[in-house]
Amino acid sequence: MALARGYAATDASKPLAPFTFERREPNADDVAISIQYCGVCHSDIHTVRNEWKNAVYPIVPGHEIVGVVTAVGSDVTKFKVGDKVGVGCFVDSCVGCASRDLDNEQYMPGLVQTYNSVEADGKTATQGGYSDHIVVKEGYVLSIPDNLPLDATAPLLCAGITLYSPLRHWNAGPGKKVAILGMGGLGHMGVKIAHAMGAEVTVLSHSLSKKEDGLKLGADHYYATSDAETFTKLAGSFDLIICTVGVAIDWNAYLGLLKVDGSMVIVGAPEDAIPVHAFSLIPGRRSLSGSMIGSIKETQEMLDFCGKHDIVSEIETIGIQEINEAYERVLKSDVRYRFVIDMASLAA
Ligand code: NAP
Ligand code: ZN
Question: Distance between CA atoms of 135 and 69, rounded to whole angstroms?
Answer without folding.
Answer: 10
